[in-house]
Amino acid sequence: MLNTTLPFPLWEGFTPAKIEQHTDSLTIHLSPTRHPICHCGSVSAEVHDTSIRTVSDRSIMEYAVTLKVPVRRLCCPRCGILTEKINWLEPYSRQTTRLVLFVENLLTKLPIKHISELVKLHWTTVKNIDKRRLAREVKEPDWSKVKRLVMDEFALFKGHRYATVIADADTHQVLWINEGRSRESIRPFFEMLGDYCQQIEAVAMDMNTAFDLEVQEHCPNAMVVYDLFHVVAKYGREVIDRVRVDCANKLKHDKLARRRVKRGRWVLLKNRSNLNDKQAGYLEELLTANKDLMVVYLMKEQLKDLWYCRSQDEAKKLWEIWWQQVMESGVQPLIQFAQKLKKYLGGITASAVHPLHTCRLEGMNNKIKVMKRMAYGYRDTAYFFLKIRSVFPGDPR
């Protein structure tokens, strides 16, 4: 146990009265050297009471530092009974401002677990410091410039628990995230948007009825644009996969041919331009040997053309041709899909006016999944959402 006074003022208004040295840490007892100062700036001579607060500070050499700070409550004539102002210690904080700034600087370079071990703070304490930093640094968007939106969902936890993310279609800034994918879950976003809802021109989404209805209710001037990626993915699951399985079942007598069809899923779903020579040959073999697969594959390619029309009238004419060919094909999974797709026709032809898609947002979702996997999940969803918004601040206009 040492009694000493440090020659430089680490703690303004206080001086070490006693230092206890342990194996790998120091406990420093401070004593005040001046009259307490109120947050209003007045110097108060009357102390209501004093309590000892245990505070962590930056390490000195290899020793972790714990401070015992006598924090006084004042009887201020202007403010009433209030805790004194200490420049190097935020109100109610258990870490000095110096330590907090040091941790915030490390948070841009190291994972929380490593910082926790380095500065001898609990993981949750470091996380809370980071959460406050993000809340301070994440910028609110300029809502007056937001004209077009993209909306999508991603898996938040196992067990079909999802979150909805909404981004600016032009700057790709993540504007808002919330748990759930129902109308009630996304309604707070439009309530927050307020009068700016009137200026929204288009919203890109998948064929989610909840998203569609909420946009129609709050954004009367917005056109709903259904994303090509989601429609084609749905076509792959409900049409191509179904027809492929049916074709395989018809080939039970020919095990080799049946195996070829069953294993042909990915060459049927991939874009032709992404196939190598071997895969292209495999695809041609499948389509030549199976008429129904040939039909649904060609109809998929024609369906994509709807998103590249120059006008809504052109898109509607192309739809009528596609619809007629579907009805004449006699392939039931294809006909059923077309009947379900018909009620979403307005959102498909709208892509001729607003050529929006959620591909960039899908890329964001993939990065979000990587963040979640690297952290082995986030228990604090508010913190996770702040991390996402900080990673996607948007492109400058």
Automatic annotation (TrEMBL):
Q: Which domain of life is it from?
A: Bacteria
In terms of InterPro entries, this protein maps to: Transpos_ISL3, Transposase_DDE, Transposase_HTH
Every Transposase IS204/IS1001/IS1096/IS1165 DDE domain range: 149-388
Ranges for domain Transposase IS204/IS1001/IS1096/IS1165 helix-turn-helix come to 84-133
**Which PANTHER family does the annotation name?**
TRANSPOSASE FOR INSERTION SEQUENCE ELEMENT IS1557
Name of the molecule in the record: ISL3 family transposase
Q: Which organism is it from?
A: Photobacterium rosenbergii
